[in-house]
Specification:
5 helices; Tumour Suppressor Smad4; mainly beta; 40% strand; elongated; Rossmann fold; 6-stranded antiparallel β-sheet
Length: 262
């Protein structure tokens, strides 16, 4: 079982009690699956670090700054019923491919949902380039803005979906996921200028085929940080001499999906 560090939304003792009451054992070794309680940030973290099947359990918040737990299969108050379904075999496991992140030729980790290059506290904006090469894709663009997000299908209702939330749309993951299993999403965050070779239109976000190589770099020095593939809360510092390459990763994240009519 996995909960938030520090001040968890649900005390570990309470989570343990619910699992035991469902007739299951709690084991630190050789577990059949993991129960992750929290919000989308916690799901993303364990989704990139764990290889066992994971059940995402939300503790939803209606507050403006609270997580909406869009990746959750169950709310915590519904967990007993969810565990019953798993015990009865009324579930499936979906495998999500991860993206690998490489800085200057060295791997810095993999991501389950997204990786983003973003301005730090010392910069009003960053000037960056995005170079993408893949099946039928050759993109070379530059932008000035808050940064850029590269996301998997699992992350499509997160940072990648901010234009929808600005328009006030309700983000139902099943209805609004915009990235297919064989695609990677790219989304600029509040760009003030973009340039795209041989095109007059400058899309805010778009999807490219899975397997494409996506390279991010700066064309002017700034306080820029890379977030997603590590535990560093301040991110990984990126300068003008650095190159960040995003490619298909080696791992997969196994997510338990409950059968609604089971």
């Amino acid at each position: 079982m996995f909960t938030d560090g520090g001040a968890p939304k649900v005390p570990p003792a309470e989570l343990r009690r619910v699992i035991l009451n469902a007739g299951m054992r709690v084991s630190e070794r050789e577990a059949d699956f993991g129960v992750v309680v929290g919000g989308d940030g916690r799901f993303s973290w364990y989704g990139r670090t764990e290889d066992m099947p994971l059940l995402f359990v939300g503790v939803r918040s209606e507050g403006a700054t609270g997580s909406k737990a869009r990746l959750a299969q169950s709310d915590f108050n519904e967990l007993p019923e969810a565990l019953k379904k798993i015990g009865a075999g009324n579930y499936s496991i979906k495998e999500y491919r991860r993206l690998g992140v490489i800085k200057n030729g060295l791997s810095v980790g993999e991501v389950f949902t997204d990786v983003y290059l973003q301005r730090g506290s010392e910069s009003a904006c960053i000037r960056y380039k995005v170079r993408i090469q893949g099946p039928g894709v050759d993109i070379d663009e530059a932008a000035i803005g808050d940064g850029v997000v590269v996301t998997t299908q699992a992350g499509s209702t997160g940072y990648y979906s901010y234009p929808d939330r600005i328009r006030g749309e309700w983000m139902d993951p099943l209805a609004f996921a915009r990235i297919g299993e064989d695609e990677v999403g790219v989304c600029h965050v509040n760009p003030t200028y973009t340039e795209r070779t041989a095109e007059t239109r400058h899309p805010l976000r778009y999807a490219v085929p899975w397997g494409s190589k996506i390279e991010l770099s700066l064309f002017r020095e700034a306080d820029a940080r890379l977030y997603g593939p590590t535990d560093e809360r301040k991110g990984i510092k990126v300068g003008v001499s650095d190159s960040v390459l995003i490619v298909p990763g080696n791992g997969v994240t196994k997510v338990i999906s409950l059968l609604r009519n089971g």
